[in-house]
Every structure is written in structure tokens, then in C-alpha cells.
Amino acid sequence: MKSRRSVGIASRSCWSLLASTMALALVLTLAGTSSPLVAQSDVPRLPDGTPDLQGNWSNATMTPIVRPNGVDLVLTPAQVRSLEEGRQDFIAQDYEISDPDRDAPPEGGEFTGNAIFDAATGGTGGYNQFFVDAGDNIAIFNGESRSSLIIEPDNGRPPAYSEAGRQRLRERAEFDAQFGSYDNPENRPLAERCMMSFGSNGGPPMLPNYFYNNNYTIVQTPDHVTILTEMVHDVRIIRMGEPDPLPPHIRPWMGDSWGHWQGDTLVIETTNIHPEQILLGMSNASFRPSEAIKVTERLTRADDDTINYEFTIDDPLVWSAPIRGEVPFERLDGLLYEYACHEANYAMENVLRGARAEEARQNERRQP
């Protein structure tokens, strides 16, 4: 994480500014510049001749996964400059010392309207910019400043659900209606249970979470590529060569991944993703995969400091068409440390105990 100065708890106006800044990120645009693609002869290589993708990388960015209606894919310089400067102005404001005479927060917490921050803080104000490393720049891919990470469908938004997808949604809603949010540990989100990363950091596809820890370490051998995700220290192990796929009923977290080289591009094909894993998290396109899903990822060294990461999601039992996206991974000048994820998860026991206590109080009120 980047170095921070001492800061106070963000005020309501700071959080409101953040919400408006992130909304602006959805609509402002900029055409930027980027280093040209390196010539094939200049690509750093391992002893076996394959391109060297190893090192620490980050996909943190202000560019959202899903594009807002009516916005072009490639953005304009003046708008992005305004957006990125606005982001820095907000951070500077958030670093200001809090008013010691401010009123106490309201009972039940103070919510900002920003779904990501409210989910993380629970209305307590427990996070401000001291703790956040969400990404301060618009994503630039092949020299183009992008308004969304999704590029197909052409509007940058998810396609319509397939008929099978609509049926799956109905069945899931009926199943979930049996339970309250705090009935048992299985009803709590995977990230809260420290099983998978917040958002879709772990992948596939590997996407930013717009909060922190959007960092990766890639290690290669001729037989395997491993990708360590900082968030919840998930490790993807991609086997190289002719696929020997898992049986259809075995569906691990992050799926069954096999890689091969197409020229200087590493192509990873993944199937058998766990049915409870959330893909395209931190967007209104998030979904649980079906047994038919296939995710194809392509990693290409664009220059010394950039990997061009492309993904295609093909899940006909959810979507009526494939989804494609492009994300720049920038070299991380720093180290990755263990992400402990509230060790032993003592909070889960307290959350469930609190829910049982609340139910007992409600039962007492119903008694004559």
C-alpha cells in the first residue's frame, strides 16, 4: 500500500464528494498516450524462450467495469484531466483534520450512498483515504483512455440474459427466499467468510475491486504459471500444455485453468468454476457462473511496465452473448505482503450471535 499521512475520519461532505467523483468516472473521457507495443524481439524472455510475465503487477484504476449509457469507449483528454485532478482534490480534502467538535454519527451509522464504501464500513466511517488505494487514473489500453473495462457488447454493458439465465435467476431467488441474511454462515458473502477476494480480484477474469489490494505476483515455469492475488492471498495455478480437464462435477474456486502460448501471448482457458463464485464483482453485471461457463484470458507484454490483459466470458446458460473486456496491468514498484483477512474470523461468530439475540427480542415482543 502507498505511504499515507495522518488523517481524520472523513466527513459526510467528503464521502459525498467521493460518490460524485466515482459517478464522474463513469461518464468522463480522455484519449491518452501509452508506450507503443514492444517489438517481439524486445520482449523479455525466460530461458525457454517464452515471454517473461513475472513480477508484481496492479490493475487498480478509476475506469469502471461497466460503461454508463451513452458514453463512448474512448474518452477525451480534457475530461479525464478534470476527473483525475478531481480525484486528487478529494484525497487532499479527505486528509484534512476532522473537526473535534463535530456531532456524533446517527444511530445505526452514517451511509454515503457509495455501495463499495458503505459495504466496507457498515456506516461506521471506519475507512477513509488513508486506508484506500483504489486507483487514481483512467485505464489506458493500447494508447486509448477507456470509459469501461468491458468492450463487447459494443455499449460496454452486459448482454441480455439468456432464457436459461432468466430461469436460473428465478430459481435462485426462490431458493434464497428460504433464508434470512444471517441465518447461517453460508448466507454471508464469500469475502466476509475469507474464502474469495472482494469483487473479482481472484478471477477469472481478474478485475479491480475499486478499494484496495488490487495487486498480483506472477511466477512462471515451463509447466506452470501461478498468479498470487493479494486480496485474500488466493493463488491461481495454471497448468501449461494439452488440457486434461476435471470431470464436470468438480468445480473448484477459480476453476480449472490450462494455458498455452499463441506467439508471445499467454492464453488461459478456464472451465469448472465454482457455482457460488461471483464473477464481474463490483458491477451491475456480477453473476454466478453456470456449469457451461468458459473464460478465456490473454496476457501480452505491451511494454516494460505493462501487461495487456484481455478476457472473454462465454456462459450461454447465463448470458445471450459473450462478454469481452480489456484491462491494463501496470508494474507494481513494491512488495506484496500477506493479506490476513481478519484472522480466525471472530466477527462471523459475533455476527451470528447478534442475529440470534435480535430474533429472541423479536419473539419476546410478539408474545402476549
Task: Write a concise keyword list for the protein shown above.
368 residues, globular, 19% strand, 9-stranded mixed barrel, single chain, two-stranded antiparallel ribbon, 5 helices, 12 strands
What does this structure look like?
The structure is a single chain. The protein has 368 residues and is an alpha+beta fold. It has one domain (12-331). Helix content is 21%, strand content 19%. It contains five helices and twelve strands. The chain has helices at residues 12-27, 77-94, 115-121, 163-176, 346-366, and strands at 55-58, 140-141, 144-145, 150-152, 215-220, 224-229, 235-240, 256-262, 265-271, 294-303, 306-314, 323-331. It has a nine-stranded mixed beta barrel with strand order 1-5-6-7-8-9-10-11-12. It has a two-stranded antiparallel ribbon with strand order 2-3. β10 (294-303) and β11 form a beta hairpin. α1 (12-27) packs antiparallel against α2 (77-94). The longest helix has 21 residues, at 346-366. It is globular, with a radius of gyration of 22 Å.
Could you outline the blueprint of secondary structure elements for this entry?
Layout: H1 12-27, E1 55-58, H2 77-94, H3 115-121, E2 140-141, E3 144-145, E4 150-152, H4 163-176, E5 215-220, E6 224-229, E7 235-240, E8 256-262, E9 265-271, E10 294-303, E11 306-314, E12 323-331, H5 346-366
Parallel strand pairs: 7-8
Antiparallel strand pairs: 1-5, 1-12, 2-3, 4-12, 5-6, 6-7, 8-9, 9-10, 10-11, 11-12
Helix pairs in contact: 1-2
